[in-house]
Structures are given as structure tokens and as C-alpha cells.
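Below is how a single chain appears once it has passed through the pipeline. First comes the sequence as given, then the structure the pipeline wrote out for it. We keep one example in the README because the format questions we get most often are answered faster by looking than by reading.
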Amino acid sequence: MRRKITLISGIIVSVIITALLFATNYFYSEAVKRGEEVELHRGDEPVAVEAASMEDQSILQEAKSWYSEQEPVTVEQTSEDGLTLVADYLKNPDDSGKAVILAHGFRSQKEDMGDYVKFYYDQGFDVLMPDARGHGESEGAYIGYGWHDRLDYVNWIDILITNHEAEDIFLHGNSMGAATVLMTSGEELPGEVKGIIADSSYTTVMEELTHQLKHLYNLPAFPLLNFTSAMTKVRAGYSFTEASVIAQVGNNTRPLFMIHGAEDELVPTEMALELYEEAGGEKELWVVPEVGHTDGYEVATAEYEDRLEGFITEALND
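Resulting structure:
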């Protein structure tokens, strides 16, 4: 009888372990492995784009049309772990020494930041638009959620300074790109970096994936995320707990402009409040009313640009 109980217990344990390993591998593929677009929880976010004014729609349409006619050159770097990373670079004839790096979001690509290019170009900026590792034309078998990418961005900054004579550099990111630039803010940066704009960043990878797991699959973080984090550490070289925007932004010394939609359910608005509370340096938070994830620019374009211009001017005069 005891042997039978032991055998049955062993089978049950084996089934549980096999199921957990399968689930872990599946979630790793969904969350970390390079691949196609995956489902994300966005809740019942309002499609507030319809509320955009005629002025805002006109600005956006002009920006899209203008960007489609540009011919940026390709810039590359070799990351610290040997990956070839690719970016588009648009040189401004104004030759003001100003440059911005635009950071795209999760499973997106550099062209998806195209709406912002005309605004910065009109302000006299050179524009650098990288494909994050594991995205677009850049190499990489995994998504770094900004953690390894922060070191890539330090390299992009150095490239702008060394090869393109940039004197005043801003970083501007959306979603995962916002997390990337905020993680970069905690590194030792050269004096040429004058300010950072982060639209809709999460606090930590663990907290964001916990949010997604709960709302997509109605599952708790433990044990699946713990196992997936361990797998990520082995396969990609980082864990979900160490990839912390909160920890990095506390070391920031540059002016920060944080933006977040009041109705964001993909990255809860509460995360913006936490980040703002923990951030070092001069900081400003704009919670855009009645909009969802990264929709602020599309819905309130003119106000967004006015606030950006004010932030840039103040940061350059500090």
C-alpha cells in the first residue's frame, strides 16, 4: 500500500513539474523570446483618439506625411555582448548640436516612433531611432525590457557625441522604451545628456508581467513567473526582479518629464505615481486625462508638444 501511495505521489509530482515546465516555456516564448506580436491586456481602454481636435489631427497627419518622405541613414553599434544593433539617423541641417534618441515599445520597431520625428526636427534636433535588441533589424534572440538595453543606450549616446558632435542630448521613450530611458537614467551618463522623457513606463518587469498574468490568464505570479524569471536568467542573462526601473530611476540626476494616461490598463497609472515618487533629480509628471496607453500624443498633440517644448527649453537652460 505504501509503495502504491509513493508511486501515485511520484506520478502526480512528475505531472505537476512537467506542466509547470511547459507553462514556463510557453510564457517565456510569449514574454521574452523574440517573435511575433502577442496578446496584451489593455482592459477596456477608451479609444480617445476620436476626441482629438482638428488641430491635433492636422499636426499628426502632417507629421506622418513628412516622416514618410525622409531618408534617414543607417547607424550601427556592436553591443557589449556582441550583437549588431541598428538605428535610423536623421541629420538636421540646422547643425545645432542637439540630438534626441527615440525608444520604441514592446515588440515594436524604430519606425513606430516616427510621429515624433518632425516635432524634434523642427526644434533643430538630429534624430536617432534605434531598433531595440530582439526587435526590427537589430540582432538578439530575446527582449530585454530595457535592462540590457540601458547599456546599449549608453553606447548610442557615446556614438552621438563621438561621431555626430552632439552637445545636448535628450532621450524619449514610449512604454518599454520609456522603461529603457529611465533605466538608462540610473547609469553614469556624460554631461551632454540634458533630459529624459518617459511616456507610460512600468516600474519593474516582475510587476508588469504579474499584472499581465493576472488579467490575461487569471493566474498568480507564483510560481510561474518565478520559474520564467529563472529561465530568463539562464537564457537571456537577466531576471525579472533585477530589471527594475524603480531602482535605476532613484539614481537619476537629469531632468525628467514623465507622462502617463489616466486610463492606462496595460501599464497601470499607479506605476507612474510610484516612479515619480522614487525618481531622483528634477522631475515633472503629466497624467493625461481620459486616455489609455501611450495615447497622450495622439489625443492631445498640441498640448503634448507645448509641454515637451517647455521641458526641453527649461532643461537646456539649467
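The first helix runs from residue 2 to 31.

See the next section for the split statistics.
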